[in-house]
Write a structure and sequence with these properties.
The structure holds two protein chains of two kinds. By secondary structure, chain A is an alpha+beta fold. In chain A, 52% of the residues lie in helices and 9% in strands. Chain B has helices spanning 41-56, 93-103, 106-109, 115-120, 122-132, 143-155, and strands at residues 18-25, 30-35, 65-68, 71-78, 81-88, 133-134, 137-138. In chain B, the strands form two sheets. A five-stranded antiparallel beta sheet of chain B has the order 2-1-5-4-3, sandwiched between helices. A two-stranded antiparallel sheet of chain B has the order 6-7. The chains are: A alpha+beta, B alpha+beta. Chains A and B meet through α1, α3, α5, α7 and α10 of A and β3, α2, α4, α5 and β7 of B. Chain A: Residues 745-866 form the Clathrin adaptor alpha/beta/gamma-adaptin appendage Ig-like subdomain domain.
Chain lengths: 967, 157
């Protein structure tokens, strides 16, 4: 056997490859390559004409360099020249170069096509094959246009060599797939089908692929292939193991051709012709029989080849789904494989059985293997095999075995791989619902799901259980009892608290008779979880509490106490605060009848298809994982969930983002100043000295001392208690001031929103800033139905802020807005603000004017950015913070926040595209402060690193603090 | 990446059978990459890295098949080399697994296939591939025929 020596024939190439392999570093490699490229370039440019051998050698070197990952921008012409050589080795290198480095240079394409044309016409089979392989490898439309008409002719020509026919068939297949319009159908198609009868098995192997492809597009035109395929298959299957000589692979006759023929038949329904069908069934039976015979070889290649045919046969049997006998036999065969020592076979058997389970003929037969499959789920080492086992259990599940399968899946869930937990959860949830006979089992199952894999129980799943419990009164008492028991666990998942909170709020009365679950016990059990829960869950629990007040009047005092607590009424979260305030008022003012109507049990949900099913389908589909990560939902599932919004209250709770003050609507013009009576203020929101106009900038040297924060004044002192003149109810309404810092943070990156809200008054803010000037509109909305009198808002500048910020009310001389504000009406106040110097503490803890409001975004190129970044390299000019993400790390949201913060966002500056880079100037009257910022998210660690560089240390620090709160 | 997949149980896709063939060593160095779909260079590099990451973590007790994006990789390890074929999820696993082995008919062509042969004779490996696989389909399966053809070609100048 003539062995191939190292790079035989081309010594220079072998030397070059050796050199590259001996390079100790990447740099050395690049150096060697550059040297070679220079050499080749000079050879190609030289006056001396290169001989074919040298050209081949250099083109081959270029190809090697390209395959190492380096760009090649010359040599194409030399490669094209090689195509017209009459030496095989030169031609081959030319074609290889063209196939690997396709270049859509039109000039070259013409030359290449010309060379191909010559080779196709050469009658030299070796050259013809080279040309055909080139077309098949490139497969471009240009080549299709040039050759699509010629290739069918070559394929069916009587004098074409077998190897040329093989290549022509697959070349045509490639062109047909790329541009079917270019391949003319015609007389040749009938002759192609007859290639199934060709003496040469290689030709048949290639032709079947082409025919299969053509069949899919024009099934009727190629119907004749069925009987030809069946007879060919029959001849192979019934042949002895040595009949086919060259095409026998480890004692298996023509395994690949058999597989291809079986796949071709899967393009069609079972043959109509009884004789053909009979012959085919015989084939299929023979394959099944052979599977039972002792192996002719111990080699794995033998059994793999044999089983490749067997699995394809089973696919065809399943595709036909009409031969009960064959289906059951297939199932039994797969059953044997389930316990085979080859992992590959166990995997494939599980996969194949999954489709058998959906056939009515074999479903029962599949079910008999349940114990083996459960065992696979428990013991397989390869996660993909376990996943197939889970798929199969899901597929074979019906009413008779649902309890067993669901309980096994639940058990598996405890140790399941993270990658597939969510899918298993969805499957369990679907099976539990689909096959529930008594719904207490269903409730138990879902609660178990939450207990075992709470993190993987999506909203769809726990919404669904609430939907079902709400709609079935036979299970409501049981559900209440079960959630009550589940909540006893010292550590229970938040999803359990949600489900428990909702169910007890609706049906807690059904178990209230038992002293162990009396109303106060229920309440204190729920409330013991309250403080550890997220905002969403706490909001849900607040709704449960108000429902309790209706269900159990004896809990009213306790619950009102909870609602009234500062931690609720003054909660920084608008939603929680609003619920607390509204529920407290509702429970106080509404009569029992009204309360009972408002807080009535939820009506049944309209019966719709389970949204969980839709989710599983999406999960199984392509790209499911990413779709889930994005939290995208298709509209239909939204629709379904729309009815299950877990807010047990029918009280309307405006969303926190709602435009409560109607800021977009024109506010009523300010009324003329009223004679202000001093004492009788209903709401003296800003009690303190009036703003002092026109303060000049302070001297530069006083700068540092002025940066000291002013003596902190309690926000309580700044906001007077609303006097109960127009008493909205018996309760004393405490001042619900959100945490000042929280409030500020809310406005760092945006300019509009609700600044303050209690039961009497809402203050909205809308502001705009340009350079060092700002204008702020404050909207005071009277939420009561009575008139505010002598309404007099004033702005206070704590400490020496006056020296840094100048603000004045926009309506001189009185600086007052309308003194009376009618019930439900709104008045507007305008503040003009000028930033004199940089400052840290905003005016009044509750006015959202932070230093970044005076940002002017600055666009700059990467080079400028880095230059400036370097200029600001003193340690005190930089402030850096590394912190955990408090919100989901979404690049778009981050961008919006950074833009809202005021800086320009610079693209293509940071080498890492994940990072954000911004630049801007803080404009004050006295000076300008250049700011550069860089934010580096680390999605894996859920952390950010934020770096600020400005020319002023306190500004860096302060901006860094402000911005870091936002993510 | 422009890989377009099909659902698990749907009929065969309209696309090509084989999406790509990769031969990599354990360190992830590519010894052969044959693409039957259009990818740009960045995508190719990404695919190469992903395949390496997916395949090298598996041991002998695992199957020779691994789901990969919307496709699957059928692979077999020979000494330090991984031979990987990327096909549609509903394609015949064992047929491709043995096609890999059949491809190692190289064994006889290069007297004992080793990484070094693939490096020094890279331009011949493409010829072998084209004899056995073309347009993403299996072209020729007879070892005798392929070998005969390769020897004939080698005798040509």
């Amino acid at each position: 056997m003539p062995a191939v020596s190292k790079g035989d024939g081309m010594r220079g190439l072998a030397v070059f490859i050796s050199d590259i392999r001996n390079c100790k570093s990447k740099e050395a490699e690049i150096k060697r390559i550059n040297k070679e490229l220079a050499n080749i370039r000079s050879k190609f440019k030289g006056d001396k004409a290169l001989d074919g051998y040298s050209k081949k050698k250099y083109v081959c070197k270029l190809l090697f360099i390209f395959l190492l990952g380096h760009d090649i921008d010359f040599g194409h012409m030399e490669a094209v020249n090689l195509l017209s050589s009459n030496k095989y080795t030169e031609k081959q290198i030319g074609y290889l170069f063209i196939s690997v480095l396709v270049n859509s240079n039109s000039e070259l394409i013409r030359l290449i096509n010309n060379a191909i044309k010559n080779d196709l016409a050469s009658r030299n089979p070796t050259f013809m094959c080279l040309a055909l392989h080139c077309i098949a490898n490139v497969g471009s439309r240009e080549m299709g246009e040039a050759f699509a008409a010629d290739i069918p002719r070559i394929l069916v020509a009587g004098d074409s060599m077998d190897s040329v026919k093989q290549s022509a068939a697959l070349c045509l297949l490639r062109l047909y797939k790329a541009s079917p319009d270019l391949v003319p159908m015609g007389e040749w198609t009938a002759r192609v089908v007859h290639l199934l009868n060709d003496q040469h098995m290689g030709v048949v192997t290639a032709a079947v692929s082409l025919i299969t492809c053509l069949c899919k597009k024009n099934p009727d035109d190629f119907k004749t292939c069925i009987s030809l395929a069946v007879s060919r298959l029959s001849r192979i299957v019934s042949s002895a193991s040595t009949d086919l000589q060259d095409y026998t692979y480890y004692f298996v006759p023509a395994p690949w051709l058999s597989v291809k023929l079986l796949r071709l038949l899967q393009c069609y329904p079972p043959p109509e012709d009884a004789a053909v069908k009979g012959r085919l069934v015989e084939c299929l039976e023979t394959v099944l029989n052979k599977a039972q015979e002792p192996p002719k070889s111990k080699k794995v290649q033998h059994s793999n080849a044999k089983n490749a045919i067997l699995f394809e046969t089973i696919s065809l049997i399943i595709h036909y789904d009409s031969e009960p006998n064959l289906l059951v036999r297939a199932c039994n065969q797969l059953g044997q494989f389930l316990q085979h020592r080859e992992t590959n076979l166990r995997y494939l058997a599980l996969e194949s059985m999954c489709t058998l389970a959906s056939s009515e003929f074999s479903h029962e037969a599949v079910k008999t293997h349940i114990d083996t499959v459960i065992n696979a789920l428990k013991t397989e080492r390869d996660v993909s095999v376990r996943q197939r086992a889970a798929d199969l259990l899901y597929a074979m599940c019906d009413r008779s075995n649902a309890k067993q399968i669901v309980s096994e899946m639940l058990r598996y869930l405890e140790t399941a791989d993270y990658a597939i937990r969510e899918e298993i959860v969805l499957k369990v949830a679907i099976l539990a619902e689909k096959y529930a006979v008594d719904y207490s089992w269903y409730v138990d199952t879902i609660l178990n799901l939450i207990r075992i894999a709470g993190d993987y129980v999506s909203e769809e799943v726990w919404y669904r259980v609430l939907q079902i419990v709400t709609n079935r009164d036979d299970v409501q008492g049981y559900a209440a009892k079960t959630v009550f028991e589940a909540l006893q666990a010292p550590a229970c998942h938040e999803n359990m608290v949600k489900v428990g909170g909702y169910i007890l709020g609706e049906f807690g009365n059904l178990i209230a008779g038992d002293p162990r679950s009396s109303p106060p016990v229920q309440f204190s059990l729920l409330h013991s979880k309250f403080h550890l829960c997220s905002v969403a869950t706490r909001a849900l629990l607040l709704s449960t509490y108000i429902k309790f007040i209706n269900l159990f009047p004896e809990t009213k005092a306790t619950i009102q106490g909870v609602l009234r607590a500062g931690s609720q009424l003054r909660n920084a979260d608008v939603e929680l605060q609003q619920r607390a305030v509204e529920y407290l008022t509702l429970s106080s003012v509404a009569s029992t009848d009204v309360l009972a109507t408002v807080l009535e049990e939820m009506p049944p949900f309209p019966e719709r298809e389970s949204s969980i099913l839709a989710k599983l389908k999406r999960k199984k589909g392509p790209g499911a994982a990413s779709a889930l990560d994005d939290g995208r939902r298709d509209p239909s599932s939204n629709d379904i969930n729309g009815g299950v919004e877990p807010t047990p209250s029918t009280v309307s709770t405006p969303s926190p983002s709602a435009d409560l003050l109607g800021l977009r609507a024109a506010p009523p013009p300010a009324a003329p100043p009223a004679s202000a009576g001093a004492g009788n203020l209903l709401v003296d929101v800003f009690d303190g000295p009036a703003a002092q106009p026109s303060l000049g900038p302070t001297p530069e040297e006083a700068f540092l001392s002025e940066l000291e924060p002013p003596a902190p004044e309690s926000p309580m002192a700044l906001l007077a208690d609303p006097a109960p003149a127009a008493d909205p109810g018996p309760e004393d309404i405490g001042p619900p001031i959100p945490e000042a810092d929280e409030l500020l943070n809310k406005f760092v990156c945006k300019n509009n929103g609700v600044l303050f809200e209690n039961q009497l008054l809402q203050i909205g803010v809308k502001s705009e800033f340009r350079q060092n000037l700002g204008r702020m509109y404050l909207f005071y909305g009277n939420k009561t139905s009575v008139q505010f009198q002598n309404f007099s808002p004033t702005v206070v500048h704590p400490g020496d802020l006056q020296t840094h910020i100048l603000s004045g009310l926009g309506q001189p001389p009185t600086k007052r807005v309308a003194a009376q504000v009618d019930g439900g009406a709104q008045v507007q106040q305008v503040l003009n603000i000028e930033c004199l110097r940089d400052f840290l503490t905003p005016p009044l803890l509750s006015l959202p004017v932070t230093i970044n409001k005076f940002f002017q975004p600055t666009e700059m190129a990467a080079q400028d950015f880095f230059q400036r970044w370097k200029q600001l390299s003193l340690p005190q000019q930089e402030a850096q913070k590394i912190f955990k993400a408090n919100h989901p790390m979404d690049a778009e949201v981050t961008k919006a926040k950074l833009l809202g913060f005021g800086s320009a966002l610079l693209d293509n500056v940071d080498p890492n595209p994940e990072n954000f880079v911004g630049a801007g100037i803080i404009q004050t009257k006295a000076l300008q402060v250049g700011c550069l910022l860089r934010l580096e998210p680390n999605a894996q660690a859920q952390m950010y690193r934020l770096t600020l560089r400005t020319s002023k240390e306190p500004v860096s620090r302060h901006l860094c603090e402000l911005l870091a709160q936002q993510f | 990446v422009r890989l377009k997949g099909q659902g698990k149980r749907c009929k065969r896709s309209e696309g090509l059978e084989i999406r790509f063939i990769l031969i990599q060593n354990r360190a992830g160095k590519t010894r052969l990459a044959k693409w039957y779909m259009q990818f740009d260079d960045d995508e190719k590099q990404k695919l190469i890295e992903e395949v390496h990451a997916v395949v090298t973590v598996r041991d002998a007790k695992h199957t020779n098949f691994v789901e990969f994006r919307n496709f699957k990789i059928i692979y077999r390890r020979y000494a330090g080399l991984y031979f990987c074929i990327c096909v549609d999820v509903n394609d015949n696993n064992l047929a491709y697994l043995e096609a890999i082995h059949n491809f190692v008919v190289l064994n006889e062509y290069f007297h004992n296939v080793c990484e070094l042969d693939l490096v020094f004779n890279f331009y011949k490996v493409y010829t072998v591939v084209d004899e056995m696989f073309l347009a993403g389909e299996i072209r020729e399966t007879s070892q005798t025929k392929v070998l005969k053809q390769l020897l004939m070609l080698q005798s040509l100048e």
